[in-house]
Write a structure and sequence with these properties.
Layout lengths: L1 E5 L7 E6 L3 E8 L4 E7 L3 E5 L8 H17 L1 H4 L16 E5 L15 H17 L2 H14 L5 H10 L3 H10 L14
Helix pairs in contact: 1-3, 4-5, 5-6
């Protein structure tokens, strides 16, 4: 996959995008012109919002890059198409997925109400989390931290430090692995 950096919106609502087929219809924001415009992108391009290159955005950048790569790995069959075949979707169909800052909305509704998009976002979050924080290493770090410190947040602090991830990403990974009690793991956004 190729990585590119653009402003995806004027307000930063989209953090990343995965392009599944060559297109000249990727909408980006031009701060210089103060308007949206189209650019071309090749199949297999991951576009990361330029705002993630700013100071103190490294954790969010790393998770977003993993998330978008996960879409490329897991969902190309859903979005990609053969341009030599007729499509019922029409000429306006652009095979790409844009990911919002708040893509965890699916976790607020029952799994039985999730759409394909909700499931794909959940899957991309889970794979990004697993890539950045491998299960066996997280378990080792969490157990060692808990053994070494009576502080309740020791496991969280260890995962954040060792894997260079945000508190939120570490929290959800620990919750997913059973270190943090809570609701059913299948409903987690990460």
């Amino acid at each position: 996959m190729e990585q590119d950096f653009q402003y995806l919106t004027h307000c930063g609502v989209f953090l990343g995008m995965t392009v599944f087929n060559d297109t000249d219809r990727v909408i980006v924001y031009s701060p210089k012109l103060n308007r949206a415009e189209y650019i071309s992108a090749r199949a297999g391009t991951v576009i990361i919002d330029n705002s993630l290159l700013e100071d103190k955005q490294e954790h969010r950048y790393r998770f977003t890059a993993g998330h978008e790569a996960a879409h490329g790995i897991l969902h190309s069959g859903y979005f990609a198409y053969n341009p030599d075949q007729l499509s019922m979707l029409g000429k306006d169909y652009v095979p790409m997925v844009q990911c919002r800052v708040d893509n965890a909305g699916s976790s607020k509704k029952p799994v039985t109400k999730w759409t394909d998009k909700d499931w794909m976002e959940w899957q991309a979050n889970r794979l990004s989390s697993a890539i950045l924080m491998p299960k066996s290493m997280v378990l080792k770090a969490a157990h060692e931290a808990e053994d070494a410190s009576p502080i309740a947040n020791a496991a969280l602090e260890a995962v954040v430090r060792i894997f260079n991830v945000s508190n939120e990403a570490a929290f959800y990974r620990l919750k997913e692995l059973g270190f943090v009690p809570g609701r059913d793991r299948a409903c987690l956004p990460f």
